[in-house]
Amino acid sequence: MASTASDRRTVLADTAIGVLAEEGIRGLTHRAVDRRAGMPPGTTSAYFRTRAALLTALVTRLVRLDQAELQAAAEGLPPLRGVEDLVGGMELLARQRLGGEGRRRSLARYACAVESVRDPELREILTPHDNAGREAVRQFLAARGVADVEDRTHTLLTCLDGLVFDALVSGGDVRREALEGLVAAALR
């Protein structure tokens, strides 16, 4: 029985991500999640009593999915030997975040980031976590003698996030030249 409840919570959180991505923060309601999930009215509110509880579940699920994606991406890439490897990895991540399921999660993530300004619990969940991708960037920069590796890693990945955001808003893409510029700046 516990597994079924846990599975139902995951389905509802995944559905909430889609509702948020497609309808925005104002469209995220318990009823909208019930409808989209094809569940009887009241199901979402039975599992997540308040809107805050629904948002917390959504953000927690979003972070888990992002962490799994970053882990898989880092494991699928060879060790970062040169600048081209790092730029290529960043380009791959940007493409993943701009297409299909990744696009949907990116839209939801940015909406949640804005909500987290007023909600310390959401902000805490959304705080960047260590993962294999972040560690690969850290090691790459450290191997090149960058003194403030933690700050440079954070700045580089934050800038990548900004480029993805800009591409989502403008309907464009992340240009390779922009990524090359970010890496060059991180190495200076």
Summed over residues and divided by their number, the pLDDT gives a mean of 91
Question: Total domains, how many?
Answer: 1
Number of strands: 0
Round the Cα radius of gyration to an integer and report it. 18 Å
Q: Looking at the chains present, what oligomeric state does this protein adopt?
A: single chain
Indicate the CATH class. Mainly Alpha
Describe the structure.
- This protein has 188 residues and is mainly α.
- The chain has one domain (2-187): Orthogonal Bundle (Tetracycline Repressor, domain 2).
- Helices cover 80% and strands 0% of the residues.
- It has ten helices and no strands.
- It has helices spanning 2-27, 30-37, 43-47, 51-76, 83-98, 100-116, 120-126, 132-143, 149-170, 176-187.
- Helix 1 packs across helix 6 (100-116).
- It is elongated and about 55 Å long.
What are the defining features of this structure?
188 residues, single chain, mainly alpha
Write the layout of secondary structure elements.
Layout: H1 2-27, H2 30-37, H3 43-47, H4 51-76, H5 83-98, H6 100-116, H7 120-126, H8 132-143, H9 149-170, H10 176-187
Helix pairs in contact: 1-2, 1-4, 1-6, 4-6, 4-7, 4-8, 5-6, 5-9, 5-10, 6-7, 8-9, 9-10
Summarize the structure in short.
The protein has 188 residues and is mainly α.
